TrEMBL record:
The lineage of its organism: Eukaryota, Viridiplantae, Streptophyta, Embryophyta, Bryophyta. The chain holds residues 237 to 666 of 666 of the full protein. This is Alliinase C-terminal domain-containing protein. Residues 288-310 are annotated as: Disordered. Belongs to the alliinase family. Residues 26-291, 315-429 form the Alliinase C-terminal domain. Its cofactor is pyridoxal 5'-phosphate. Residues 299-310 have a biased composition (Acidic residues). It comes from Sphagnum jensenii. It comes from the Eukaryota. Keywords: Pyridoxal phosphate.
Length: 430
């Protein structure tokens, strides 16, 4: 197997090609290794090589040292959003971070720092800002918010409940809106309405607002939007995220957090991310040009174009991988969902959410969302994590997301072989 120098627990043998059928299948993380096969097929096309002298300075840009963002990366990010149409970047600031996990903390720091003096002046309250998100919320939020035991903010759980609590109503809050949501892939809006008697802000975590996961139906336009490279291309190990920020004061405070926390963001990572984003953009532009060319020639493809694609052959399957990245991702995830639904159809043990079709302005077709995770509910209120554990499937349990133990989350982003093993095991549970 390429890309790994030791076998996964579910594989054995010299080439790690034999299935260890009784292995523990751990799908509790959202490790996006599914996309490996795309990049493997592209080969050197998207490889970054960095000369030893490059990127040595702390500062990625001498005129913009404050935001630590490489100007080429910034340009590529803006172009990518403009191509996909999923978020506005015009007149917005781009702040990069070590994954969006760091940016999430930076955004809380920034918003709290700007919000609290205002709140304190108005009602002489110095209570910590409440960080809330509607249940089921991404399991990392409570952990990250509570980790440093800050006196300035605290995890306050379900955003829907917070709105109802009288005592807290006037307290400052930050609502995290994750859309599509992790764990269950729903498209979400803020549940709390800011009014004159509260000091509220929102952070929109749009990690999965890309065409492989959901139809792009509108250009997101919120004060603070977080994106992560981990879920776009699958390069979680590059540890790169970005925030699109409207207010320069918030962007500056976020940069301050990143300066104090990690003194900027790896320039090697930024370079790699730039190459990968450029590869995606070029792939889509070429496909569009090719489509136009074919149309102009009355539907006839030319021989030389066929030849040009020959280097894009999947080393594992020998299949041609000519599709641009988002077309590829959407097709593969759609096929995974088709298989999962087939296995779970009429299953008496589980309930799963249903999703409505929508028209995707980027892929020019209607389809149902294909979330990165399967959010299963065990019928009869059974402890779903324990039930699946008995069948050697490790999940992330409902309570981690503020939900009941009848729910679990399973990653659908793992490599083909492990996804197939999941299907086999779910099928055997019938
Ligand atoms: N937000 C959401 C909703 C996520 O699912 C994840 C990753 N699981 C992150 C943020 C964190 O991403 P990163 O790898 O960039 O820290």
């Amino acid at each position: 197997r390429t890309g790994a120098c030791h076998c996964h627990a579910c594989f054995k043998g010299p080439q790690c090609a034999e299935l260890a059928t009784d292995c523990i299948l751990n799908l509790s993380f959202g490790d996006p290794t599914m996309f490996e096969s795309y990049w493997l097929a592209l080969g050197s096309e998207a490889t970054t090589s960095i000369p030893a002298w490059q990127g040595m300075s702390y500062f990625a840009h001498k005129h913009n040292a404050f935001l630590f963002v490489d100007p080429y990366l910034e340009q590529a990010i803006r172009e990518l959003h403009s191509l996909v149409g999923n978020a506005v970047t015009k007149n917005r600031h781009i702040v990069v971070g070590v994954g969006s996990t760091q940016l999430f903390q930076a955004a809380i720091y920034a918003l709290v720092s700007l919000q609290q003096p205002q709140a304190a002046a108005a009602n002489s309250s110095t209570t910590p800002t409440n960080i809330v998100s509607a249940v089921p919320y991404y399991s990392a939020y409570p952990e990250v918010v509570s980790f440093q035991q800050s006196g300035k903010y605290r995890w306050a759980g379900d955003a829907s409940k917070f709105q109802q609590g009288n005592a807290d109503q006037k307290a400052a809050y930050i609502e995290i809106v994750t859309s599509p949501n992790n764990p269950e892939g729903s498209i979400r809006q803020a549940v709390l309405q800011d009014d004159a008697s509260s000091y509220g802000s929102t952070i929109h975590d749009l990690a999965y607002y890309w065409p492989q996961y959901t139809p792009i139906t509108a250009t997101a336009d919120y004060p603070v939007m977080l994106f992560t490279f981990s879920k776009i291309t699958g390069h979680a190990g590059t540890r790169l995220g970005w925030a699109i920020v409207e207010d320069v004061r918030v962007a500056t405070k976020m940069s301050e957090f990143i300066r104090v926390n990690t003194v900027g963001v790896s320039q090697d990572s930024q370079l790699r991310a730039t190459t990968l984003i450029r590869t995606i953009i070029n792939g889509h532009k070429q496909a569009k040009m090719k489509q136009k060319h074919v149309k102009d020639n009355g539907g006839e493809e030319e021989e030389e174009e066929e030849e040009e694609e020959d280097h894009l052959v999947d080393c594992n399957t020998q299949q041609k991988q000519w599709r641009p990245f988002f077309h590829y991702g959407q097709t593969i995830l759609e096929e995974r969902w088709r298989q999962v639904l087939l296995v779970l159809e009429g299953h008496s043990l589980f309930n799963i959410p249903t999703y409505d079709q929508a028209f995707c302005s980027f892929l020019h077709k209607s389809f149902q969302p294909n979330p990165a995770f399967l959010w299963l509910e065990c019928t009869d209120g059974q402890d779903c994590h324990q039930l699946l554990l008995k069948h050697r499937i490790v999940t992330r349990d409902g309570p981690s997301f503020g939900a009941s133990s009848a729910f679990v989350r399973l990653s659908l982003l793992d490599r083909d072989s492990l996804f197939d093993l999941l299907l086999q095991r779910l099928a055997s549970l019938r």
